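Q: Entry one of two.
A:
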Amino acid sequence: MSKLVGCLLISLVFILPASSPAQVNASGHQLARDIFKQLIEINTTHSVGSTTTAAEAMEQRFLQAGFPQQDLYLGGVNNRNGNLVVRYHGTGAKPPILFICHLDVVEAPREQWHTDPFKFVGKDGFYYGRGTQDMKDNDAILVAAFILMRKQHYTPDRDLILALTADEESGAYNGVAWLLKNHPDLMKAGYVLNPDSGGVDLVNGKPISVDIVATEKLYGDYQLVATNPGGHSSLPVPDNAIYHVADALGRVQKYKFPFELNAVTRAYFQRLSTVETGQNAADMKAILKRNPDPAAIARLSTNAEWNSMMHTTCVATRFNSGLANNALPQRATAIVNCRVLPGHTLEQIRQRLVSIVADLKVTVNYEEHSVHDSATAPEKKQHPPVPPNSEIMAAMDKLAAKMWPGAPVIPTMATGASDSIYTLAAGMPSYGISGIAIETNDIREHARDERLPVKSFDRGLDFYYQFIRMLTTQN
């Protein structure tokens, strides 16, 4: 093949017509890797980093790609917690799609890593760096996909909105919440896609499932506190504040919240029952019946992930007490972190904890942003969970069969929480969808030596590029 013909073929792949989406070519992948590297090497931790710096860098990328300045909004509550919102104009035939991607990352002490967490290091088939899994990989993928489509003069059948935001991991200035409150016009969409959840589960390199997160648990922190006048440790008293809180934590540990399924978790176990075998498959079918089998629930609950899909969970995460080794504590506090099933308010769970603790010496407060304690918690419920719409499911089924043959597409509920809690509360259906494939025993988000397979990143770009085009091409 001549060099001229080869170049022509490459060009054709790069500018394929809208009706026939294809994988991104080599130059497109290089663009995504360059963006990925740039983002990893910008420190966006809450302690010393800045999402504004990352947002400004991506703004320049979009301007250089030809996006008009008026289609870019850069702003936030202060000069460190900046957000970038990008609008890619379409025909307007359908309501917009909003993509939400947080720019901030959790802390990464250098002494705990084998590589510098804020250097983009490629070795042994992996990219290392803080944010490679959570979630600068998908930040880079969405930025690259928007830029590639712009260069190809692709016109979607609706507007596409990308929000790159602050403070998902920690801090009081969550970017999605701030934008919805202060600039709702920028964020209004028919539905939301959030690559911070979902993805492809691998076991020894084999794709097992392609997950769509269709709803999430609510996140809630509660403070258990007991006080006492204190005194000298040589004169112990029976109502020691530490003992009261410790006994309360023991009761929380032993309590099992009721079994519940919703539209999404019911669909999850139904689909998973066709993949699982033996006792697991039988138990999954048994819990779907009108009268769920308690023994099946108990067996499935021994799996931590399945347990959290069926129950609200509350677990102690912090304890603090005392001023000196030889003094009785005047105050003892513990934090209980809860992940609440949709349909319940945070205040309902606070009241449940009060009844579980059953000790007038222990007060149960709601803690917001690890800063403010209050005697009550928010009463607002999430919208009832609904499975992904037919448009999304059809595209996912088709694309998954092509990219990960044999791996079923499974709607699921996130047992943690992401920025989708804010878009769901705003009334926009929100789905966690990612094309990143990771071994189930190598999930390193929030952990040391966070890494992502090179092939997974490249395939993740292929996925989202094609997925967006499938959703936005008029037939």
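Q: Entry two of two.
A:
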Amino acid sequence: MWKSVAANGMSFLIIVFIAVAGAIAWGQREFRAPGPLTEATFFEVPRGASLRRISDDLAEVGAVSSAVLFRVGADYAGMGDQLRFGTYEIPAGASMEEVLAIVTAGGPSRFRYTATYVLRLSGTGELRLRERVPGTEEILELADFAYEDGVPEVYSELVESGTPMVYRVSVPEGLTSWQIVEGLRAAEFLSGEIAEVPPEGMLAPDTVEVQRGADRQELLDAMQAAQEEILAEAWAERQDGLPLTSPEEALILASIIEKETSVPDERRQVSSVFVNRLNRGMRLQTDPTVIYGLTEGRGILGRGLRASELRAETPYNTYVISGLPPTPIANPGRAAIEAAVNPDDTPLLFFVADGTGGHAFAETLEEHNRNVARWRQIEAEQGAAGQ
């Protein structure tokens, strides 16, 4: 009898062992098998989320076939406590093993929606909403808008639903500190107060990625720290013999170069004109400095300069004063700063717009006057065509 019981017990244990082994083998196959997703999707791992929550969310969006099996597999692999905060793209057919690797690897987030806020000269900004098609690099343009013109429904719905979205703040070269501050204040996705407008020229133009609710003052502080570093590096690598006595003077010249040309290949030529003029004791005679004296960097003038304004005695009127104005007139980018301290070696003393977006340069006043006459003719033709 006992032999029979022992035999039956052994048989039961063998059956249980086989069943467990079979279950493990099945679980491993399921864990590594292609998943249920028929198309790529984006998935957010919130900061501090538990494995249970993430596995349930993955099952809810159809990324895994079983939340329980995903948790078991994660624990078995020793990765149950290695979830990384971020938004990730999960490809179609990804296995649970592959999904686990994605949500625990970390690295740059892959957002479906991107909102880029581009600051403008007016002291506001334009928000450009884009969508990346899952599983591809195709970008769809959903909306371009300024807040004062109204917020489109597609953006409002994404914000209200809490859809993960990456925000970028883009500060172009040549904006004044007031324009940057006002632009940041107008961005509804940022938070916090700005204590004061930073010194002119001391904010590095750049495009930075931020989270919704990022602090405005912290953004400004980071831009100022970056500009200080850029200026210090450029000053340390400056040419010998420049008519500049300090990094501050280099920044002033760089801001004028930034406002005079948007053509990258011209920056060092423009710099050479101003450096040659300073070396000869000639006035810089540059319109952007006059405009800054009128607007104080607040907004845009919106019209041409009057003859009386070119004759007005102000600290920024380089048609009247000698040398550099007292402060920068905008926030220059790295390229303009580097051009200010490393100009081309030229005999050039003049330049004027050439009608193509660039400038015509000249060494002599006679040659310059011919270039000016050509530009006046181009202006007249453009004016006639616009009537």
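A: Comment on entry two: Residues 2-32 form the longest helix (31 residues). DSSP finds 13 helices and nine strands in the chain.
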